[in-house]
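Page 42, continued from yesterday. The earlier attempt failed because a stray header line got pasted into the input along with the sequence. Redoing it now with the clean sequence only.
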Amino acid sequence: MTGKKGKRGWGHIRKLPSGRFQASYIGPDGLSRYKAPTTYSTRMDAEGWLSNERRKIELDVWTPPAPAMVREKPKEPVLRDYSERWLAERTLKPRTRSGYAANLRLHINPILGDIDLRHITAQTIRSWYAGLGAETPTRNSHCYSLLHAICETAVEDGLMQVNPCTVRGAMAVKRKRQPIILDVPEVAKLADAMPDHLRVSVLLAAWAGLRWGETAELRRKDLDLDCVTLTVARAITRRDGVSRIDTTKGGEARTVVLPPHIRPDVRDHLDKHVSDDPEALLFTGGRLGRQMGDRVYREYFDIARKSIGRETLRVHDLRHFAGTQATLAGGSLKEVMARLGHSTVAAAMRYQGLVSGRDMALAEALSLMAQGSLTPKEDQKL
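This time it went through. Structure tokens are written below.
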């Protein structure tokens, strides 16, 4: 290399402020300058590229080098793409996954989906949440909780500095409808108003705290020989028009000690309406052994609730009755949670009552309380 710094016998090399080397040369036409498509970490590599280009000219196989490669800045992900990937990477029950997908499709991504994650602010979230309206508080809570979880993961991935979901109280479900809590005599009357083959379904829902999907999937094998304990291990779920047998909502089985005053009713039901097959369903639909759908059951339930003057009672309200009665009977928070199978962050609290043996005493107390609330005639029915 001779003369001016950077000049050489053929071509030109200059050191950039970044410390890398850029090579260029005047083409065969003597007018145009061509640069290497990239920069080099050493001068020797830059010289090597110039040597190759000069050789191509000498062999008359030269073509203009490709334009310098422009390294594109990574595209900022928008919420729609990130949320879809977030959902795909989660291990979820089909019903939960379908619910999340529906909330994203209908209520989150139509408004926020095309916004870069880094541009979603607390004000953005407040405006979106306000736009959900006040008519569907449960749905709003579910949508907000989902969005909060997605943004929390984005923070962990370094795509957001902070979680913008800061609306106070938005994840707390505000009931638009308060559950109807029957008294003990009303539960007995409701059960008696059901068809004989479904009478015990009311007693189990009310005194064992079962969800309807759990009741529909009960089988003979789930009861011990004396009908003292009931194992709740499965549930029927329905989503997108498809029914399937799934785990319980909490994902784990639970064992419930039945109050003594309903055990004779359960045994009688088994004798009259359930075959000896351990897999036989406790409650069936039109044909023997067929799973009962919730629509058919609600038709019977509708007639029964009207007969006791409780036209707005829902099947799930019986579960609220169960929780209330268990609390009044002296059950601790842990025991009631275990009995009803509530899912919480503190998953270890679910079954502590059963381990301690307190659930047996709780069941006894439920029967004593029930008998004290009934007239002699109603007591005989139970």
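Notes: The longest helix spans residues 137-156.
Reminder to self: strip header lines before submitting.
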